[in-house]
Structures are given as structure tokens and as C-alpha cells.
Amino acid sequence: MAVWAIGDLQGCYDITQRLLERIKFDTARDTIWFCGDLVNRGGQSLETLRLVHSLRDHSVTVLGNHDLSLIAVGQRTKDEQRKVNPDLQRVVMAEDAPELLEWLRNQKMFHADRELGWGMVHAGLHSSWTIANAERYAREIEEKLRGKQFERLLRNMYGDKPGWNPQLAGMERARAIINIMTRMRYVTPRGRIDFDAKGAPGTQPAGLYPWFSVPGQVQRDLKLVVGHWSTLGLTMCNGVHAIDTGAVWGGKLTALQLDAEVPRFEQVEGRDVPAQVKPATKNTSANKAPSKRTGHRRRRGGRGPRPATPATPPSA
Questions:
Q1: How far apart are the first and last CA of the chain?
Q2: Which pTM does this prediction carry?
Q3: H/E element holding 252?
């Protein structure tokens, strides 16, 4: 038995399959934690989402900013959906889109396993949040996403303000929690997010810190595995293990074994050609994971939450 965490897939289906093969993932014994941002930019978001959905009984998924944007796109009119990039269009216009997006909407914002000693979130946690805080705030968003008023949340989650304050209420509180858990990189000493700085540490303006290095960080009782920040690279610092290594930008796709005595990483090469988006196809067994070991060899694929738009430069 092994428990693996995998960084941002971002629609890189072929690369994901190669990594599953590399770690010899077996649904009969293993579990995967997906760190969010399953979709967008890689050209194979529909296939990737179908794959992760097929592994739902053997995995845990937390939502990233791109996943939330996809859920929001799924609620728009067909004319509005045609304005988003082709990779996401293929998802929302597929015949199995309702099933896929309903499943995605019911995934977690934060996951904690105290027996294993790990927690998982897409971007990060506010410097003042304990694990118990994170679980409670995540549940607030999950209940809204799964409730009858979820469309109201999707309409109001966009925006950079307000900063976190435990006295916030309503949609402003929800937006602040979502921004911390899915969009955060650099923060001020008081924990306010700077949404413009996106490069590697050392490139940020004076007075900004990586969220996991800000002075006065609360001590947490679990190690954390996160994704989101591709320019950060593979990083272990202050109990945080950042494993988005930029597969969609030509870097690598990384898996971290969480139940190993010492950190064990496996990687495969990421995307190296422009994404070529194919027309949407029916959901067939070719897009599902095998019942046992998965990760068949395949050809390399093509190259606040914010509203879904065409692909942007690697720093986004």
C-alpha cells in the first residue's frame, strides 16, 4: 500500500498516465491525493478530468482556482461558454459534462489525515490558521458549493478583496477563504495576499514573503502538501511540501509518497509542445483508469480563481 500526492495536472492527461505508471499505481492497494488544478492549459482537460473521476474511489481531490473557474463556466449559457479557451470548452460541451462537473463541485477545499500526519490544500493556509481552523473554514466553502445557493457563490467568488479577517461574513468571507486556499503565493507580514508577485522567491518586491515563511507563522500539527505555485519548484520548508513543478509549462509532474519514512519523490517530464485541442468526444473506456494498475504508456500530450480566459504566461 502507498499513499501518493500529485501536483497540478492542468489537463496533461498523457503525462499523468506516465507518472501513474512510474509510481506503479494500483487501485487494489494505493491511494492518490490530487492537489487541485486538474484542468486548463494542457489541452487534455476533458481526458484528465475523466481519469481522475474514474479514480474517485481510490483518491482524494482538493479544488484549485482553475477547477473552481471550470465549475463556474459550467453554469454559464452556451454562448458564454464558447468564449472560454478551447480546452475548457471541450469539458463543458462534452456529453458527460453534467456528471463530471457535479462530482467536481462536491470535492474538498482542504483535506486532513491525522493518522497519516498530512494535510492537503491547493495553494496554502493563512499564517494564523491552525489545521482545525483550516478544516472549519474549508467546510464553510464546501457547504456552499454543495448547497442550493452554489451559483451565488460562483458569481461572487471573483476578486482580490477583502483580506482575511475572522469577523468577515457572507460572500466577502467566502471570497477571502477561497483566495487563501486557491490563489495565495506571497503575503505581507500581516498575511495580506499580494496577487501580482508570482515568480520564484527572490524576485518578489521588498516586504513580501512566501506564505509559508512569513514571520509569526502558527505551528501546525500536520505536514502540508500543496500545489499551485509552479515557479516555486519542488520545495520543502517549515513542514510544507510544494509539488507543483510546472508540468504544463515544460517542467515536470511530481508525485510525493506520503506514507514513506523519508520523503520519496517520483517525476516525469512535462509538456514540451503546444497544446493541440481535439474536438470533444464521447466518454469511452479509453478515458477511464484500468481496474488494477493504471498508467499505460501513451504518446506525450500537447502543450481568486479568475474567470476562465485563454492561456496566460507561466507566471499566472
A1: 36
A2: 0.87
A3: strand 252-257
Tell me the H-state helices in the chain. 13-22, 45-54, 65-73, 78-81, 86-92, 97-105, 131-146, 150-156, 170-183
Q: Which of 34, 78, 86 is nearest to 244 (CA)?
A: 34
Query: Taking the alpha carbons of 224, 226, 232, 234 in that order, is the dihedral positive or negative?
Result: positive
- Of all residues in the chain, what percent carry a pLDDT higher than 90? 84
Strand 252-257 with 3-6, pairing: antiparallel
Predicted confidence (pLDDT) at residue 310 exceeds the cutoff of 50: no
Instruction: Report pLDDT for 274.
Output: 56
List the domains of the chain with CATH numbers. 3-128+181-273 (3.60.21.10)
Cα(304)–Cα(153) distance, integer angstroms: 12
Question: Given pLDDT bands bounded at 50, 70 and 90, which one contains residue 40?
Answer: very high
Asked whether 91 and 39 are in contact (CB, 8 A), the reply is yes
